[in-house]
Amino acid sequence: MSFQAYLDTILKKTGMRPEDFCKLANQRGYLRQGMKAGEIVAWLKSEFDLGHGHAMAVYSILRERVAKPRTDAEDLSEHFKGARAKWVGTYKSILAKVNAFGKDRPSVNVGRSYLSLLRNGKKFAIIKVGAEFFDVGIKLGNDRKPIGRLERSGDWNRMVSHRVRLVSADQMDAELIRWLKAAYVHVAE
Q1: Distance of alpha carbon 162 from its chain centroid, rounded?
Q2: Quick one: pLDDT band at residue 34, thresholds 50, 70, 90?
């Protein structure tokens, strides 16, 4: 069942939308940092006769409302948690090289799934960090033929035209940096 299906069922059963539950939870003192799922679920089961899954759907909405916004640094650290930590040096090395491309110093947009490299707000590359791989998506244009480890992005990601998959840190080399530089130049054209 999709999340929206849960919400539709809850609305049908209770006549209440997520914002109604937030308002009521706030009035009753439930909407606060550190609220516990068990407390919210018990309240929703008792007062609204919701099942566990439906009560957890409401809880997730309430939790989202009181969550502290994360900083870019916290979001960035999520990309390098656990087994992905081994790629931090590779990432920093790529950033150091990219920052030397020109006077338009690139910026990084930290998303939930990807790290986007931008030149003047325009994306020229993305990075996806996995436990066993470090993917670099590069926006070179569809006319650039794939060669060697530079492959078409295909279904991997349509935001970029090509991808290079690293499986070890030593694969971050001058060739990869040349492709990134070409994308950096290409995005400004």
Answers
A1: 20
A2: confident
